[in-house]
UniProtKB/TrEMBL annotation:
Organism: Streptomyces inusitatus
SUPFAM superfamilies: Nucleic acid-binding proteins (SSF50249), Thioesterase/thiol ester dehydrase-isomerase (SSF54637)
Protein's UniProt name: Protein dehydratase
Gene3D superfamilies: Hotdog Thioesterase (3.10.129.10)
Domain of life: Bacteria
Length: 527
């Protein structure tokens, strides 16, 4: 039996209230959508921490009898569909698009020896707009049709877990198989009565395990009587939320337009005098060495060190959260440039700190060059470097609280993340259709949240950190104009591996909770 010998779903991270991978590798909207003739009607969900048990242990509900449950149980252990090959090999363009969408500048995902970000795992199984038509009818479709016929026309994901035993590299051809691990008896939940369905997808390369992707969903009959009002009531129009402050816009003119065009293309261009070869930054209309107006450009390598810095405490400026460090960075080419420093706390920046250029989106319209601190390059960092150090320079031990990361949730981020993960569900890019499905606006998909969690961990633990597993639970959705603040606490640290408890909040409350396991090669650890 395909499901034999496998450990049960651990459920230690996640109840994903967003999307789940279907048997064809496509993403399905799981914010309680109801499959009815015509347009789907949205069902309001209870908060994740107030729902009935997710493991199917709640009381049985009245419904179809034992014969129906027996028919459902016959699907346990069956393949949800035939073994399938990914639509495309693992490839550099998709990796680049993913990293740009997530703002992930981890060096392991760049260059000729790049690997794919582990949190991209599900993206390689997605069928995109075309799906996987070669698979035909599959057992999962039969099972869901059976549940639909019993009135369980709505679906919501409750648990998700990923493991990464092997890195994926450009050129790898993935194959995947999905098994229906379990189908529960009929249970009553706050959403309605239904059945929990747990699936497990195994991803392989040349027969070698490359990843495991688990999902548990609830197929249920929505309790419309309990949720419907007695009579329609007018919906009050809320006061518009104040617009988040934006960073000052750069003044672009004919003398520096080429520089900002380079930034838009993620290239830092330095002017070079064609008469004497002198490099200059910032851009000027003429050479300050020989006076020649003729010039061309060279692209900076992005490597540099902090030449000097200041820490801004007062006065406060809109869109800036003091205290923060502003550094004058001497680039490898010999010119200097001012910019914000990321990857280190403001009180950890020192003269001589090694940095690397990265481009970060600060709002829907503006992307700027930043400099990420590189503690493993022999830089002069604060004396707080401990057992593992990491990108924060904090002494890493059980109980260590990682510095938070605030990520503006822009419409661009939501759409870019959905496209980078091949998730074409309309609720992630079409505001009008999202509203018809009961959401006030488009919202972030779970694959993007997963990617941002992965970015947060590797940012905090440094360039050598390797993700081994991510398990997350989604709660309040991320809508445009909000801010996602990720934070983490080291739960355990031993034998070169850390387990980190993750939370992410927004204006509505908890967006994500979960657990991440990260390997820390070439480091000494202590519990």
């Amino acid at each position: 039996m395909p499901g034999a010998g496998r450990r049960p779903f651990s459920g230690k991270g996640s109840g994903c209230l967003d999307t789940a991978s279907g048997s064809d590798g496509q993403s399905e909207n799981l914010i309680g959508t109801t499959r009815t003739p015509g347009e789907a009607a949205a069902v309001t969900l209870a908060p994740a921490d107030r729902q009935e048990p997710r493991d199917g242990s709640g009381p049985d509900a009245a419904g179809p009898g034992e014969d129906f449950v027996r028919r459902l149980k016959e699907y346990e252990g069956r393949q949800a569909g035939p073994p399938t090959t990914g639509r495309d090999p693992v490839n550099a363009p998709m990796i680049r698009h993913w990293c740009e969408a997530m703002g992930d500048a981890h060096p392991a995902y760049q260059g000729p020896d790049a690997i794919a970000p582990p949190t991209m795992l599900q993206a390689w199984t997605m069928g995109g707009l075309a799906g996987h038509p070669e698979r035909g009818a599959v057992a999962r479709d039969e099972l869901f049709a059976l549940l639909d016929g019993a009135g369980c026309t709505s679906v919501v994901a409750t648990d998700c877990e990923q493991e990464y035993p092997r890195a994926l590299r450009p050129g790898d051809e993935i194959t995947f198989e999905t098994v229906i691990e379990s189908v529960s008896a009929r249970k009553r939940t706050r959403l309605g009565a239904g059945h929990f369905v747990t699936t497990r997808t195994e991803i392989r390369v040349d027969g070698e395990p490359a990843g495991t992707h688990r999902f548990r969903v609830l197929k249920y009959a929505p309790d419309l009587k309990a949720s419907a009002p007695e009579a329609p009531a007018p919906t009050p129009t809320p006061d518009p939320a104040p617009a988040a402050p934006r960073r000052p816009r750069p003044v672009i003119n004919r003398d520096n337009a080429g520089f900002w065009a380079g930034v838009a293309a993620h290239r830092l261009l330095i002017q070079r005098c064609t008469a004497c070869g002198t490099l200059r930054l910032p851009w000027l209309p003429g050479c300050d060495g020989c006076g020649s107006p003729e010039w061309d450009t060279v692209e900076a390598s992005g490597e540099g060190v902090v030449h000097s810095y200041v820490v801004m405490h007062h006065p406060p400026f809109p869109a800036f959260d003091p205290p923060y460090a502003v550094a004058l960075v001497e680039l490898a080419e010999g010119v200097r440039m001012a910019g914000n420093v990321t990857g280190a706390r403001y009180d950890e920046v020192r003269v001589g700190t090694a940095v690397r250029l990265e481009f970060l989106r600060v709002d829907e319209e503006l992307e700027l060059p930043f400099f990420r601190a590189l503690p493993d390059r022999g830089a002069t960092r604060g004396a707080t470097r401990g057992a593992t150090g990491g990108a924060t320079g904090l002494p890493m031990a059980a109980g260590t609280e990682l510095p938070p990361l605030a990520i503006p949730v822009t419409r661009t981020l939501i759409v870019a993340g959905a496209l980078a993960s091949r998730d074409y569900q309309d609720v992630h890019h079409d505001p009008e259709l999202a509203r018809r499905r009961g959401s006030p606006d488009v919202f972030m998909n779970i694959l993007t949240t997963n990617g941002l969690v992965g970015r947060y961990i590797t940012d905090r633990f440094g360039d050598r950190a390797v993700l081994r597993s991510v398990a997350i639970r989604l709660g309040a959705p991320n809508h445009p104009g909000d801010t996602l603040v990720l934070s983490g606490t080291v739960v355990s640290l031993a034998d070169g591996t850390a387990e980190v408890r993750i939370t992410g909040t927004n204006a509505l409350g908890l967006h994500v909770t979960g657990t991440v396991t990260v390997a820390l090669p070439d480091t000494e650890t202590s519990g």
